[in-house]
Structures are given as C-alpha cells and as structure tokens.
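Input record (Table S2, row 202):
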Amino acid sequence: VCVFCLAHRTDPAWAERAVDELDRVLVDHAHCEMKAAASALSLAARSVWAPALVRPLSELAREELAHFERILDEIEARGLELGAPPVDDYAARLLQTAKSAKSAATGKERLVDRLLCGALIEARSCERFKLLAEALATRGMQREHELYRELMASEAGHYTLLRKLAIDIAGDEAAAQARLEELAAIEAEINATLGDGAAIHG
Ligand SMILES: [Fe+2]
Ligand SMILES: [Fe+2]
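Output record (fe (ii) ion complex):
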C-alpha cells in the first residue's frame, strides 16, 4: 500500500547489505525512530492554529518512541551503543527542498509540505522494512524478521495518517496529492543518490 507514492524503488541488494551489517542498521534505525518522535512533537507544538492535528501527532510521537525503545532493546541485547546521531542527509535534503521550493509559502503550505515529507519518509521506511523483513526471513532470522514485519505495518499506517492530515489541512485532496507527487519525485532523486548504505535511508 505504502509504496504507491514512491517514484524510485530501493534496489533489493540494499537489503542483503543491511542484513550483513545489521548492527550498523539497528543503530541508525534507533536514531530514525527518535527523530520521527521528535518531529511529530515539533509539528504538534507548531500546529496551534490547527488543533485537530495535536492529538494524532502526539499519539504518533508515542508510537515512534515505543519503536525507538524496541530497537534500543535490540541494540542493548547485542552489546551495542546508541552513540551520537549520524548525519541524516536524506531527511535534511528532503525537508530543505520542500521549504526552499516554497519560500513564499504561507504557514499552512509549509505545514502541508512538512506533513507530506513526513508521509514520504514513512513510505520509504515501510518499503525498506519490507525488503529487510524478507531478507531476514531468507536467512532464517525469524525474530528479527517478525520485528521488521510488524514495524513495516506500523509505518504504513503512519504514511496513511500523515497524508490524511496533509489533505485535511490543505482542504483540497487533489492539490495535496499533486504536491505529494512533486515531493515524491524529489525524494526519489535523493533516495537514488544516497540510498544504498547500511542505513535505513542511505
Ligand atoms: Fe517508527
Ligand atoms: Fe513512523
């Protein structure tokens, strides 16, 4: 369901490298979940004029924090350390492009863009968790397979939620969808440029 908006598919070879370097991927992934929670809270705090967003974004932040703690459990069980957050070129470039493409944008347009970028990041996570879950199953890593399969379903739900909130705020489904597709083209370029390292988004 969630891959429909993505304009570039991840090379399945990425998942093989990710399983080979699962320790590195888990550390990167933990930071992604924490950033997803922080980003949902930051959007909630800046949506005072759109009160309908506050509760769903707060609930989203709670779910992302629960994901963070599950990956943190995994990291600790493996004797790894969380360490400092890695440079996140993927999200930074996506959000930067979204903002600069709309430098004269209103607060509402910027919020719609932020929600749509969030939706795309969730869709990409969902796509990659699916590939990773499949590669883990092939290698007989059943526990890790189940973890990623469950997270994949959860991120698909987050994609649907953020897209819906963007449409609600935009008040125009066709316009929000058109903007989602513009941003998806940008996301595809970023993903294709840096998307094959042992990290969730590249
Ligand atoms: Fe998550
Ligand atoms: Fe998510």
